[in-house]
Structure formats: structure tokens, C-alpha cells
Amino acid sequence: MKKREFLGAFTGSAALLPAAAVARARTAAAAGPVLLTVTGEMAHPNRGPLDPLRDQMMAKQQLAFDKARAFSFADLLRLPQSAIRPTLEYDGQRHRLAGPRLASVLAACGTAGGQLTLRAVDGYAPTIARQEALRLGFIVATHLDGRPMALGGLGPLWMVYEADAVPEMAAKPVDQRFAACPWGLYHIEVRA
What we know:
The chain is an alpha+beta fold. The chain has seven helices and eleven strands. It has a five-stranded mixed β-sheet. The protein has a four-stranded antiparallel β-sheet with strand order 3-4-8-9. A two-stranded antiparallel sheet has the order 7-10.
């Protein structure tokens, strides 16, 4: 087959794709890559099961799921935003962290489970009761002091709360306040 014939045949076959599928693909590409995946029983998934090829990190961390809700950076920014000012253990200073409340992320998924495993890119995965995380006011921080957080630093996402505002946590040394707060967050597993 000659090059022009091949390109003509290829172009013609593209017309067979449903317009809605093309529109969804363009919208997903415009939103950017997925930064956070929430799995577990939910009413509002937007993706199917684990794909061993595309979900390499999840597969290597032995995750399995039939459906999930995926969030790009743009998706997270579209949720109502909150800001907190905790003292951080890395420099002992208060910093402004901003992003959607965990409650908003879970509501977007339509989840109702009672236990949350918060998984970071390095495999750190603390589990916390949903009610405790909501009581503490966890946010999925996307910004530190007004700037997006980079992978390789504390980001791009950090599940964190304002420990200074919680008396029992503020009484602890600063390096003991954030054990349930993985930086480099990429996955939340919701279980009953």
C-alpha cells in the first residue's frame, strides 16, 4: 500500500469513531493527567477497572478495583477550595496549604465507606477512619504558599490538616502530628 492510500484509509476510518468518544477523549486530554484515583464502593465512578498497563504503580502496589473516580489537577481545582495554615515539621514554620476538602472529594465520588487508606507514590499508606479524617478537616492540598506543589517535593497532592487547630494534636511535638498525612498522595481506597 502506498503512503497516500494508507493515510487516506486511516483518515476515513477515523470518521467511524463516534463523535461523543472523540469529544470525551479531547476533554480528558484538556483536563490533564490523572493525579488522584479514588477506589471502593461509589455512586459516581468515571473510569473502569485497574489496567495493568496504564496503572503500573497501582499494579505494583497490588491494588485491584472494578471502578474508580479519577481526578486531574483541573478536576480538583473545580471543587470548592479551602486553605489552612499548619506549622510544618520540615521548617517549624506555618505555611498556607490550599485545595479541596476531603469531604468534597468523597462527595464527588458518592462514597460512604468508613475506612480510608491514603496511598502515596512511595507506598506509604496510612489508614484512618473517615469520620476522624473529616473531624480533623483534612484537605487534598494542591498548593503550598500559593504555588502548585511539585512531584519530588510534597506534591503534587498532600492529604493534610491544620494540626495547630486541633488541641490534642497541637499538644504533640510537630514531627508527630502528621503520621496520617501522606505527601505525594495519588490514591484513596474507601472501605466499609
